[in-house]
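Hey, resending since the last one bounced:
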Amino acid sequence: MGLNETDLPVPRISVVTAFPDTVRSYLSSSVLGRGIEHGLLDVSLVDLRDFAGGAYRQIDDYSYGGGGMVLMAAPLDAAVESAAAGEDRYVVYPSPQGRPFCQELAEDLRGIAARKRLVFVCGHYEGVDERFVRRSVDMEISIGDFVITGGELPSLAMIDAIARLVPGVVGSFDSVKEDSFFSGMLDNPHYTRPEDWGGDRVPETLLGGHHAAINRYRRREAAGRTVSRRPELLAKAGIMPYLECGVYVLELHHPVLDRNGCESTTAVTGMDLHDIARACRTYGVRKFIIVTPLESQRKLISEVASHWITGYGAEFNPDRADAMRGIKTVSSVSRALDWIKEKEGRPPFIIATTARERAGSLSWLTLKETALLAARPVVLVFGTGSGLCEETLDSADAVMSPISGGQGYNHLSVRSAVSITLDRFFGFR
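The structure tokens again:
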């Protein structure tokens, strides 16, 4: 689901609970209350006790085999049927045994609630009859590895997270995109008046009114917080907006190895040009630089790119033209690196890639963290033929461990390796 979509139907949500007043009190207040009042959310409550049998409206009984009280299957089933009468439904049971709740799951549930009625079933005591779970529950979700007295708070937490994804519920939808976890990164610190609180001052950068400097400060702080507090988040975070400098992809056609392990020069292929250029454009790479000492090859690249950038090719496929504008050709690696240094004003951090095991190589996740904190332009170097020469690998700041599918076969095309690497480093989740 794209979070910029404003034409999704209003999310439909029901909460099955034995304590409706508790849920109603929260739903009627603050942001959620305004969203419901303005018709941006459709949230209803179902009192589980309305479906209980007997004079005492019994909804629970002792657990077979000993233990505490368990919510009975029949009242739960009847309540869920009532909550989604005549509608397709999707039933969520907050449970310590469920899958962990996260931002991506909130987005998934928001999309489900636009197509079906999303029904939250609030458990209590020792839980609910497992037969009801097997028969009626579509997903169990946990909000953390701890136990609380009932499912109302977890349900409200998830509804709140879903509601924030509905344009209009939060005052500015842009502020939602800046939240922690939306891009996979933690949020930057925030300050308000007074400027000096007991000798602890607001950072001067935030007081200067220089928006570019403020944005750089916030990106650095968010990056530092994520690395120090929640480094595991980096695996699925989109770090490109947090880098201080640009990212460049180098495809080497010389010097590279041939099948016999000798230094060689390879020919440029049209598939590499098109596929890698599009991958670079997709992930925000500033330039796709092709290194070949052969003037004829550089001329060929220029002609192919020109076909798509000007004339009929540009009219026929403007998106391809946009990608091909990112191509640059140079005669040597040193020329490429000098050009990047001059353009960025800083020496690049060079990450070489290889399909061979090599002592001292680092995982992509470690290098992703390093690139995030380096404050230098990042250059990812890929070799054609049978890979980069030892001299090139030795001269890099770091070498990335080989991409592996775990099957023992490791002969990816360079365009596949580039796409996989860019997605791991800069893909949003």
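Residues 1-5 have pLDDT under 50 and may be disordered.

Sorry for the duplicate.
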